[in-house]
């Protein structure tokens, strides 16, 4: 059984899905960060990617990304006139996107080690 969770779900349905997940009636949830809201949210990706392995059992975390998304994000930062920020701020944002991209491509260094560093 699987479910989709997003910010547009009503509270009743969200609670039902959450309980099915807690009770192992649901094996897969595809969700935005809306699923993590209110559930021991500490520091986004690092915290979320480690959630499955907290019980000490073998766990998998799948990271989906697309190169075109990185290009779109960079263009938005560089050319969107509604982003009223300095060139330095834009450069910091571009550097952050580049770090995420490098993280996605790196299949040699342990993901946990990359997050910690």
UniProtKB/TrEMBL annotation:
Matches recorded under Gene3D superfamilies: P-loop containing nucleotide triphosphate hydrolases (3.40.50.300)
Top-level taxonomic group: Eukaryota
Keyword DNA-binding annotated: yes
SUPFAM superfamilies in the record: P-loop containing nucleoside triphosphate hydrolases
Keywords: DNA-binding, Isomerase, Nucleus
Coiled coil: none
GO BP, sorted A to Z: double-strand break repair via homologous recombination
One GO MF term attached to the UniProt entry: DNA binding
Any one Gene Ontology cellular component term annotated for this protein: cytoplasm
Family under the similarity heading: Belongs to the helicase family. RecQ subfamily.
Protein name per the record: Helicase C-terminal domain-containing protein
């Amino acid at each position: 059984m699987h479910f989709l969770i997003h910010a547009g779900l009503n509270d009743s349905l969200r609670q039902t899905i959450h309980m099915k997940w807690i009770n192992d009636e649901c094996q897969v949830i595809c969700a935005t960060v809306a699923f993590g809201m209110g559930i021991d949210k500490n520091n986004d990706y690092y915290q979320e990617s480690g959630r499955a392995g907290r019980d000490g059992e073998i766990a998998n975390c799948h990271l989906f990304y697309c190169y075109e998304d990185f290009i779109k994000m960079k263009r938005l930062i560089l050319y969107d006139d509604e982003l009223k920020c300095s060139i330095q701020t834009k450069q910091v944002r571009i550097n952050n996107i580049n770090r995420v991209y490098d993280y996605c491509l790196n299949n040699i260094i342990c993901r946990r080690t990359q997050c910690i560093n």
